[in-house]
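In the design runs reported in the main text, the only information available to the sequence generator was the tokenized backbone. The following block is the verbatim input for one such run; it is reproduced so that readers can re-run the procedure and compare outputs position by position.
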């Protein structure tokens, strides 16, 4: 694999400063050398810079940092499309609003390649607000709505080829606002929530989604929010929610993704190094990325179940 590392020090999508230090933290935690040890070639293209922000307004007074977030979306979309055409992009966040741009970029690339894009959203939250429905005004709660082609993103670049509901898998979900729940239902998106994962385990629901990606010869973008993980193992995030994925569950997800060999791009988002404990969350995210790229205890193909 040729991995392209791109820093996205986005801090405008929420109100707890620190995510802009994320890319530096992943680099210090040894992301590039971990990938090289797996036999990947690694090109760190440095950090993306936002476009200059233009005035933009929204009728919801709660929304903040709209012009900055649009400026990031434009810059990241262009950078992501470019990187996706050269290799496997790994986007180092930055808060989750960066996915407004990265997913737009990989969607444009998928369209150019005549492939279908699938999205695996590993998160405590559904991030299905629009700028009009968000109560917090934090635009990191909106990218799945943008990717789905919901309206009320007027000041943003139009999303290339909105991703239909059946190609989006929201996985690990355990915090959904009322407006999001209604809109998810209207949109036909049924998250794989923690209730379902507790009952069925992680393997069956993930495998079912991966089978769909494979059957469609799709491209697969994975967006990993730190708060997918349990706060006990991943404290460095502003929006912790109890009951997250354990260390072993999270590695299992990544190992299954590697074995399926379907992932084509990755976001690492919401790490706030200012809230970390001696780098442990950054290190865990690096280790999870290594599992996704092929680190394993034994290389056995054809594991069943
Ligand atoms: N639903 C909440 C909100 O809109 C939380 C969003 C959290 N999103 C995230 N990317 N961590 O404010
Ligand atoms: Mn999120
Ligand atoms: Mn989240
Ligand atoms: Mn909200």
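Verbatim output:
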């Amino acid at each position: 694999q040729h991995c392209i590392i791109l820093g996205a020090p986005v801090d405008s999508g929420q109100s707890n400063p620190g995510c802009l230090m994320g890319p530096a933290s992943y680099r210090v935690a040894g992301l590039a050398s971990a990938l090289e040890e797996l036999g990947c070639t690694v090109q760190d293209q440095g950090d993306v810079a936002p476009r200059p922000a233009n005035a933009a307004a929204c009728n919801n007074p709660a929304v903040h940092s709209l012009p900055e977030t649009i400026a990031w979306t434009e810059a990241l979309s262009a950078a992501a499309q470019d990187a996706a055409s050269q290799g496997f992009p790994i986007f180092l966040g930055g808060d989750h609003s960066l996915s407004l741009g990265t997913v737009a970029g990989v969607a444009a690339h998928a369209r150019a390649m005549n492939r279908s894009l699938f999205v695996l959203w590993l998160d405590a939250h559904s991030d299905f607000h629009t700028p009009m429905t968000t109560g917090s005004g934090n635009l990191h709660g909106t990218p799945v709505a943008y990717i789905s082609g919901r309206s009320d993103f007027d000041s943003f670049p139009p999303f290339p080829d909105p991703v239909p509901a059946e190609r989006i898998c929201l996985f690990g979900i355990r915090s959904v606002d009322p407006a999001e729940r209604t809109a998810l239902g209207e949109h036909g998106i049924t998250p794989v929530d923690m209730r379902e994962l507790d009952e069925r385990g992680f393997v069956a629901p993930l495998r079912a989604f991966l089978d769909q990606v494979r059957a469609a010869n799709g491209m697969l973008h994975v967006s990993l929010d730190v708060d997918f993980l349990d706060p006990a193992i991943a404290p460095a995030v502003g929006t912790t929610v109890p009951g997250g994925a354990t260390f072993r569950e999270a590695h299992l997800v990544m190992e299954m993704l590697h074995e399926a060999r379907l992932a084509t791009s990755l976001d690492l988002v919401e790490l706030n190094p200012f809230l970390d404990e001696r780098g442990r969350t950054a290190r865990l995210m690096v280790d999870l990325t290594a599992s996704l790229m092929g680190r394993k205890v034994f290389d056995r193909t054809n594991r069943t179940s």
